[in-house]
Design a protein that fits this description.
With 246 residues, this protein is of the alpha/beta class. It has a four-stranded parallel beta sheet, with helices on both faces. Strands 5-6-7 form a three-stranded parallel beta sheet, covered by helices on one side. It comes from Alcaligenes xylosoxydans xylosoxydans (Achromobacter xylosoxidans).
């Protein structure tokens, strides 16, 4: 979940600067974004509430009690489980209105923290990659990323565009929505990030998303993913997560 912190640096920085005292966000039961939002909120002294949904097709008591579901309350977050079929972001907005009526100053973050502002975390990442290239004496031709909610790819595309590089060097693989939906979401985020940077956005063709490796639904394992996780573990000693890197 390390990439979530890049977005939260900007999102929670903005929340604190604008006087927020509470942050609410959404995600699946084992959302890394939700867990890291709770942890960052604890550091910043913000109250945190999480509206979580059963997005992954796993009906198992251990899945619902361990991992991030164990850690979220440890960081002090109040956890709400959204009923099946309910829009978790709409539930979060409704909860925010309840708290505002009590005088609280609330900010609501969408899935993955993927907003134009959050994407600036990955504009910074593009700058870091360029710095690493200079230090290593290499130039990468492709940067491969998973695309769930769009913010990571959008920030990298905007970042390389700002550096005068080919933004099409960012190749994403969709893991959540369909390829057309992912392209549309990412295109909008790229436009928003470029507006914040004072730049004209790149051509839409620069946003490259391959949705052919997505399973039947978010988090559902595929034979290709299982093979990739095993191959990398046995050849490189790396552990890939099954939803994004795998």
């Amino acid at each position: 979940g390390g990439n979530k912190l890049s977005k939260l640096e900007f999102l929670l920085g903005d929340a604190v600067a604008n006087g927020a005292d509470t942050v609410i966000t959404v995600g699946g039961l084992q959302s890394n974004h939700a867990r890291l939002t709770a942890a960052a909120a604890a550091v910043l002294g913000l109250a945190c509430e999480l509206v979580l949904s059963r997005a992954v097709p796993i009906d198992d008591l251990e899945y619902e009690r361990n991992g991030n579901m164990l850690l979220d309350p440890l960081f002090g977050a109040r956890v709400h489980i959204a009923p099946a079929g309910m829009d978790s972001l709409a539930s979060a907005q409704a909860r925010a209105e309840e708290l505002r009526a009590q005088g609280r100053r609330v900010v609501v973050l969408p899935t993955g923290g993927s907003t134009a502002l959050g994407s600036l975390g990955y504009v910074s990442c593009a700058q870091e990659i360029a710095q690493q290239e200079r230090e290593l004496g290499v130039q990468f031709s492709t940067v491969a990323v998973a695309n769930g909610s769009g913010g990571t790819q959008a920030g990298l595309v905007a970042g390389f565009h700002a550096l005068g590089r080919d933004p099409g060097m960012v190749q994403a693989y969709g893991v959540l929505a369909t390829e057309p939906q992912t392209l549309a979401t990412t295109h909008a985020l790229v436009g928003g990030a470029c507006e914040l940077l004072g730049l004209a956005p790149p051509a839409e063709s620069a946003i490259r998303v391959d949705g052919s490796h997505r399973g039947e639904r978010y988090g559902a394992p595929t034979s290709g993913m299982l093979g990739a996780v095993m191959a990398v573990a046995r050849s490189e000693g790396w552990l890939l997560d099954p939803v994004y890197a795998g």
